[in-house]
Predict the structure.
Amino acid sequence: MKTILAVCAVLIGLALPAGAARIKDIAAFDGVRDNQLAGYGLVVGLNGSGDSDQTKFPVQSLVNMLERMGVTINRGDVKVKNVAAVMVTATLPPFAKQGTKLDVTVSSMGDAKTIAGGTLVMTPLKGADNQVYAVAQGSVLTNSFAFGGAGASATKNHPTAGRISNGALVERELPNVLAGKSTLRLNLAQEDFTTASRVAAAINKQFSGSAATSDAASVMVQIPKEFSNRPVDFIAQVENLDVVQDVPARVVVNERTGTIVMGEAVRIAPVAVSHGNLALTIKETPKVSQPAPLSTGVTTVVPRTDLKVKEEQKRLSLLPAGNTIGDVVRGLNMLGVTPRDLISILQAIKAAGALQAELVII
């Protein structure tokens, strides 16, 4: 009962009127986005915990790197355990300039036991267009360890993946998506016709005739003449306008954890609900039949099963129509069931057509 009261307290808290949000928190201008980078590299300096000889590509990569440095070596003679092949990933933010430092994630690709304490050798990071945008290098931090012997081992956290803080330098800049544009497109994070209309109205209230809706997910914004040479100032003012975001009536249910989250627009029609549990107990108590001493009989086991069935007797409960989420929670709480039972009840109410909301099960 304490659990269901805690859940209901959270749900009732969601019933408070939603305040206005800034446009920058619910939308973003087209082209102003992050870009993913990736590259293949080598981590050296490992204490015998690198890739084994069965992993061929780290040896090939090491030989190729040494040859580029002027060191000629026979590939068949290379047997090192201090090197690991890794995949390096990073995120390139919009408007990043040359010399900007980025955090990178380093993940083992072979059978290395750990890459803790290793050093990533200079690794080019490429975008989707196969162009190099950054170069990564530095000491890998994993905040983990992995030690072991023939009979036992100890591992903490995830030793085959780590990060390098400020480990990459931007070498190529992205084109300025705002240069020379007179019209911008504002993309909503969650498409909704009502929210798009409100965003356009808020912009037009501040800058008359500048915005028009094209669909439920975007708003076209015309840069005023007085801001033609100052698009950043115009965008800054638009992003800080307040808009009340409209959200659909939705109930999100997580069956694995028993979590239920409801939006403030959820309503329920009058419906009668009866929910009871059937408890079945089966207990095996076999009885042994022992023959008399010095007799020719054999010992036998006689099975005996105790079966008990208990069904809770519950009457129908009438859930009245709910005008707010608080009414819905109080109506469901009248049943006196756990959150996991509420999930089944909500599914049944939705099937009966009395739940005036979308039911999302994750």
